[in-house]
Amino acid sequence: QVQLVESGGGLVQAGGSLRLSCQASGRTFSTSFMAWFRQAPGKERTLVAAINWSGDSTTYADSVKGRFTISRDNAKNTVSLEMNSLKPEDTAVYYCAGKRAGTAGYNYWGQGTQVTVSS
């Protein structure tokens, strides 16, 4: 089993930056992929970014490409999301997620952290 806890959310002005962190515990070696999802009020949860175990393969939603960077530090069992040039439309609850190799969907989820970007 894997437990995930997010931190770093808060209120920031448009154009500003924020860094989210996800602390993993348990069988962390089983998380071949880690990802950040987000969900705005009244909208569907969508994938923001994903990263593989070695960190040499990343995927980003088109809406955040060039502005957000996902990274992981396996020695510290952490996954981060650096968010730059933030826009009001980035406002959402951000969730950390992990996926085992060979599974279609993500198996482990954090509780979420609120990110609010003001105009």
Q: Which keywords apply here?
A:
119 residues, mainly beta, 7-stranded mixed β-sheet, 4-stranded antiparallel β-sheet, 11 strands, globular
Polypeptide structure, described:
The mean pLDDT is 95. This protein is an all-beta fold and 119 residues long. It contains no helices and 11 strands. It starts with a strand and ends with a strand. It is globular, with a radius of gyration of 13 Å. Strand 5 (46-52) and strand 6 (58-60) form a beta hairpin. It has strands spanning 2-7, 10-13, 18-26, 31-39, 46-52, 58-60, 68-73, 78-83, 92-100, 108-109, 113-118. 0% of the residues lie in helices and 56% in strands. The strands form 2 sheets. Strands 2, 4, 5, 6, 9, 10 and 11 form a 7-stranded mixed beta sheet that branches. The chain has a 4-stranded antiparallel beta sheet with strand order 1-3-8-7, with no helix packed on it.
Concise synopsis of the structure shown:
The chain has strands at 2-7, 10-13, 18-26, 31-39, 46-52, 58-60, 68-73, 78-83, 92-100, 108-109, 113-118. The protein is mainly beta. The N and C termini lie far apart (40 Å).
Q: What is the topology?
A:
Layout: E1 2-7, E2 10-13, E3 18-26, E4 31-39, E5 46-52, E6 58-60, E7 68-73, E8 78-83, E9 92-100, E10 108-109, E11 113-118
Parallel strand pairs: 2-11
Antiparallel strand pairs: 1-3, 3-8, 4-5, 4-9, 5-6, 7-8, 9-10, 9-11
Which percent range describes the beta-strand content?
over 45%
Could you give the count of β-strands? 11
Poorly predicted residue ranges: none
Tell me, briefly, the overall form.
globular
Alpha-carbon distance between the two ends: 40 Å
Q: Give me the number of helical elements.
A: 0
How much helix is in the residues? Answer: under 10%
